[in-house]
Every structure is written in C-alpha cells, then in structure tokens.
Amino acid sequence: MNKTTIYWICQIVGWSLYALFNLLLFALADGNIADFQILGQVLLTLYFIFSTHVYRNLIIKWGWLRMLSPRLIPRIILSIVILSLSGFVFELILNFSLGITVRPSDLLGWIVSQFFGNLFLYFLWSLVYFFYHYFENYRDTLKYQARMNEIQLNKLKSQLNPHFIFNGLNSIRALIDENPKKAKMAVTQLSNILRNSLGMNEKKLVNFEEELRTVRDYLDLENVRYEERLQTILDIHPDSHRFSVPPLMVQTLVENGIKHGISTLMEGGLLKLTTTVENGSLKIEIKNSGQYQSGRNGRNAGFGIANTVQRLKLLYGDKAKFKISNLDDNFVVTEVIIPEQVII
Question: Which CATH architecture has domain 150-342?
C-alpha cells in the first residue's frame, strides 16, 4: 500500500467518522436524525475532504515540509484561520440551502462555536499531517545514515584483508630462504586465517570466540617468524564468548602491537591479550612490549588503531571506548570496551 492510498483512506475514514459523530449528537439531542441532517453532514464531509486536500497540495507546492519551525508556524496559523473562515461561510450557505435557521438570540453563540470548531478541526488535521511527515523524514534520515554507515563499515573491512594478506606474505617471504620448512607451515597457517576471515566479510559483528580463533592462528604464524623473540599470553574470561565484536578488530590490534612494538625491539618482547567482563560490558586489553609515540607523524599509531576507532564509532557511537597509552617505560596497553547491548 503506497502513501497516496494511505492518505486517501485516512481522509475519507477520518472525516466520515467526524460526520457520524455529529449525527450521533443529533440523535441524542432530538431523538431522531432528519434527512436534511444526513445530507448536510455528507456535504460537509466532502467539503472538509476537498479543503484539506487543497491545503495539502499548497503545502507541498510551497515546500512547507522542508521549512524550519520559525518560518513555518506563522504560515500554518494563517492557513488555519483562512480555512476556518471559508468553512464557516460554506456552513452558512449550506444551512441556508437546507432551510436551517438560527434564532437571533443564538446567532452569536452559533457563529463562535462554528468558527472555533472549524479552527480546532483544521489545527488537528495540520498537526497530524506535519507530524506524520516529520517522523517519516526522520525515519528516512535514519535509514540513509544507517546505509552510509554500512557502506563505510564495508569499506573499512575491505581494507583489512589486503592489509593483513600483505603483512602475512611479507612474514612468509622472510622465512623462505632462512627456513623453507617453517615457510611451508606458515603458508598453511595463513590459508587457515584467510578461510576464517572470508566468512566474516558480510558480517558487522562476529562472536568473540570466532575472533579469538583468528587471533590464535595469527599468533601461531607470527611465532614461526619471530620464534623466541615473541612471547604470547592469552587470559580470556569465560563469559567473553557471549559477546560480539567487529570482525578482525582484535586480530588487527594484536598485529599492530607486534608490528609497531615487538618487531622494533632487538630482543623481542611480550604480547598479552586479556579479556574481562565488567558491568555487563566486555573489556579487551592488549599489552605489548614497546613504546607508543603518537606525535611522530601518527605513524606509531599504525593502521589498526585508525581503522578500529572508525569502526567502533560507526557501530556504537559514543558507547564503545578505545584507549591506547604507555603503561610504563617498557609496555603499551590498548583497551577496548564493548557495550553490553552486543551480548548475544
């Protein structure tokens, strides 16, 4: 059912119910309903449908639906007054045509009641019409924003796989001459990671357990490359699997810690991944050897941090938290807090 059909149904049903209400009042007051009263209400209903439809066309033609309130409100008030006056004139002519007269002593009261009655009806119609379009436009804006967010998220996710593949291939290339057997093992591990990551492309969020499997595969691959220079510890809270996270987010941050921290140290270092559940939210902490220096042209931040910040902003707004800082002279700590609504 399209909007035009809904509009006409509302117009006909709404004004018809108003006419039936008037006829019910006549029946209660007089004990019966005269033919001229039925005819009068039919003609009055047609007039209200006609006048409000003309009003609607002028609203659309003059672009009132796009106006701000300070400019719009005076125009609506003036329109309602004009419509009420025209409605009063129509009822006056209608009553004269049907032979309905008003006693002189009741004339002023009848004029006031008819005019302000029409004023209320047109005000109510305007209120319903403008509020409907306000919420309709608001919903369309939300849909548009959601679509743009989805496009941006897909763009960010599409950047991750090539970035990860190139880094993985560089690691394998370094092993080919030095240790062909380990290079062969690394190719197998890389293929496992890619198999997992390809299934995540269509998802905004994945279960933390899936993400953790990718992280484990990645660390296995890096352990082949760095050997004793890379020490890893995983301390995972048992309730972490109840949460969802952006795909490849944790893996990218782990990769960032190794590439921009541990790989720069001659003696290597430690990477520890810890998760805790606090106040219904998942806290992910990545601690790695090295130093974070954000001021050096932003290079020390790495690709993973910028990507993660953007994705968290798109998915959660201000509800998710991200922080990276130096714990001391030897370690960097990256913290991500996923809000409780992602519990599945």
Answer: 2-Layer Sandwich (3.30)
